[in-house]
Design brief:
Blueprint lengths: L1 H20 L3 H112 L5
Length: 141
């Protein structure tokens, strides 16, 4: 008898446990729908994550390209600055050379004007002397 009572209690406990663990169809369907929705959301989020990763990679490549371009432009700017400094130095040197040449030209011009004046005076003196000599010359016949 004890065995029957123990068996009855065991069956009652088992029946109570199974009835507590049973899930209704609507609850099960809700959970399945919820799992499907979550799976779809995960898929959409994964696609978005992949798209953002691709965009991020493209932006990194663009950033690296822009950094390389900036570096190249900086080198070109530095070269241009060096060239401008060189050209400015050459321009200054040419200006100094020009001033020196103008000074030399003025000095030479003044010297040549003086020489021309002296030569004209000498020619005039020689012409005067030639006329005087011609007048004093006795004809030879």
């Amino acid at each position: 008898m004890e065995r029957k009572v123990a068996l009855a209690v065991l069956v009652a406990v088992l029946a109570a446990g199974l009835s507590a663990c049973s899930v209704t169809q609507s609850t099960y369907q809700k959970k399945v729908n919820e799992a499907d929705t979550l799976a779809n959301q995960i898929g959409a989020l994964q696609k978005r994550c992949d798209a953002l990763s691709a965009e991020n990679a493209a932006l990194k490549r663009r950033s690296e390209q822009l950094a390389a371009d900036l570096s190249e432009m900086t080198l070109q700017r530095d070269k241009l600055a060096t060239d401008v400094a060189y050209v400015t130095g050459q321009q200054d040197k040419l200006a100094e050379d020009r001033e020196e040449m103008e000074k030399d030209f003025k000095e030479r011009s003044d010297a040549m004007s003086q020489t021309i004046s002296d030569l004209r005076k000498r020619v005039s003196d020689l012409e005067t002397e030639n006329r005087r000599i011609e007048m004093n010359r006795v004809p030879r016949e």
